[in-house]
Each structure stands twice: as C-alpha cells, then as structure tokens.
Design brief:
Blueprint: H1 3-10, H2 16-38, H3 46-55, E1 64-65, E2 70-71, H4 79-89, H5 93-101, H6 115-124, E3 127-128, E4 131-135, H7 138-145, H8 150-163
Antiparallel strand pairs: 1-2, 3-4
Amino acid sequence: MDYQAIIDKYYPEEDALRRLLLKHSRQVADRALHICDNHRELPVDRQFLEEAAMLHDIGVFRCDAPSICCHGTELYIKHGAIGGEILRAEGFPRHARVAERHTGTGLPGYEPETLEEQIICYADKFYSKSTPDHIRTVLETAQSLEKFGPEGVKKFLAWAEQFE
C-alpha cells in the first residue's frame, strides 16, 4: 500500500495543514515502530503499523479546527470517523479501523482492539497537533486524559506498562 498516494490525494497542496499532518503522523509512526521494535514478543504487523499510523488522521481536513489549519465544517471529534470513511472508500478497511479507534483512548463503540490499534492510539497521545514540537511525558499525557474520565487514564497507563 502506498500511504503517500492517499495523503497526496486528500492533501494535494503543500500547505500548513499538510505539513502539520505529515509531521504529526511521522511522529506517531516512529513511536509506534519503536514500540514494535522493542517488543518483538508482540505479534505486530510492522508494515501495517507504519501505514496505519501515517493515515490515522487523514480525516482532519474536513473538520473545523482553525488553530491547526483545519477549515472544514465537521466537529474535530469526528475526524477519526471521517478518516474511517475515507479509508474504507479507498479499499483499506483495516486502516479505517485504526483511524476510527485512535481518538482519546477510544470512543464508546470504537475502542482500540487489535495490538496495532492500541499501539497507534497510545503513540498518538504523546503528540498534539497544536504543539507539534512538544513530546508529552507519560505523566503529562495521563493528565491530559483526565478530563475524559478515569477509565481512559487507566487504559492509557496500562498501555504504558505494556509498551514502554
């Protein structure tokens, strides 16, 4: 699969949003690959992990989040579902599941299930598109998840134990 071709199709212009998407996605992919390489005992599809990490935020362009150069009409919380629709239409249902399941530590009915989904969801939490040069610590990330309730924090900390 050529994930770059899909990015080029939906982000054809060399603009701030494309640069931000590529930077963030690369950060998430690199962290996910690091986890994969350091945990060879985990049965993870490394190539899929990189592809899915690079595409997990493909739907952000349809969302209204001007602070991160997104000038669409949908609520930002929908970017994962939108990405899932895009990736299914492109013929990549497995990648679509990752896009749908990476928001927070999973939205109701869309919790990460496979190891790849969990790793990408976990890796994504360390990088914010609004502060792309900052890498959160485990503690900062857990604190950022507190506003969504204790279950998400608990899930994140369990992933930290498993993946770090």
